[in-house]
Amino acid sequence: MRLRSLLFVPGDRPDRMEKALGYGADVLILDLEDSVTFDAKPAARLATAAFLRQAKGKIQLFVRVNPLDSGLVDDDLSAIREVKPDGLVLPKAEGASSVETLSVKAPGVPILPIATETPAAIFQLGSYASVKARLLGLTWGAEDLPAAIGALGARDETGRYTAPYEFARSLTLFGAHAAGVAAIETVYPSLADPDGLAAYARRARFDGFNGMMAIHPAQVPVINEAFTPTAEELAEAQAIVDAFAANPGKGALSFAGRMIDAPHLKQARRLLTLAADMPEI
Hints:
Oligomer: single chain
Low-confidence stretches: none
Shape: globular
Structural class: alpha/beta
Mean pLDDT: 94
Radius of gyration: 20 Å
């Protein structure tokens, strides 16, 4: 499953859901949580279920349900029980136990936890390996956590995350890879800054994230480009693989003016495998 771009769509806006099919996102996240007011949630559940029936198979469709302790998640799941989405996004997840709880309520539907939205969640980021078979990946968020601890924000005056939130981001990245699942970068909230988005997405891929969430259709092509290997990257990866194949007895080689060894070969193979899952490359 490709998870380069995951676009949020409000669950109470069926008009936007229909349009979102054509934006090029790998995944649509139909949102029943933050983008939907309490009074609008019943209608949002009906609209989301109807769209799942209509669009199933056209694109990967996830549903973000409400938190486990909200008193709303059972109604969310009841509305979509007959037409299961391709995945569930779980806000305010607190480790493997949260995944297990949701899996009991929605058996057979894989889960993408948002894994950093409470203080307790930070201490559970190493626990997801025990439920990896139930996971689509792991992602994080930088909006709820500051509010939960009384911080004034997650970013400094330059727009960069401050140390506590960089720490949460890093733990999510390593927690995902420790579990052997996709690491998904959080949203970029500034809609009027495409250059900043592009830089942020490129950095995410550089650091080891596999994809990123989007909050506006205009962000999708920028994110897709950032997480799609370039022709130059693929050519170099193939050349590295070929170089080691031609020198089977060597653990290190001189390549393009630098030394390469087993980690470089592993990285090259990973890149070529990623490209094989992207038909448009």
